[in-house]
Amino acid sequence: MLTGKQKRFLRSKAHHLKPIFQVGKDGVNENMIIQINEALEKRELIKISILQNCLEDKEDVAAQLIEGTGAEKVQIIGNMIVLYKESEDHKEIELP
């Protein structure tokens, strides 16, 4: 689990990131989870945008992504989900 201090640190790092995935009306699927997992391995910290036509609640979408990828939720702000997962091969972010 991330501490409050670590979440603040990651939020500041995520601020300038652009979302690299979008969740639309079909919600979360297996293929999306695989791709997000690969992106997390390369980048450790990613933003995911939830489109307005998404029928699911953003908390539910975040829960599905976290369960599927094993990532940690940094924050949900507006229609953005920020996820963090420590990389095994490409570790760059040093948590406080």
TrEMBL record:
<dbReference type="Pfam" id="PF01985">
    <property type="entry name" value="CRS1_YhbY"/>
</dbReference>
<keyword id="KW-0694">RNA-binding</keyword>
<dbReference type="InterPro" id="IPR051925">
    <property type="entry name" value="RNA-binding_domain"/>
</dbReference>
<feature type="domain" description="CRM">
    <location>
        <begin position="1"/>
        <end position="96"/>
    </location>
</feature>
<dbReference type="InterPro" id="IPR001890">
    <property type="entry name" value="RNA-binding_CRM"/>
</dbReference>
<dbReference type="InterPro" id="IPR017924">
    <property type="entry name" value="RNA-binding_YhbY"/>
</dbReference>
<dbReference type="GO" id="GO:0003723">
    <property type="term" value="F:RNA binding"/>
</dbReference>
<protein>
    <submittedName>
        <fullName>RNA-binding protein</fullName>
    </submittedName>
</protein>
<dbReference type="InterPro" id="IPR035920">
    <property type="entry name" value="YhbY-like_sf"/>
</dbReference>
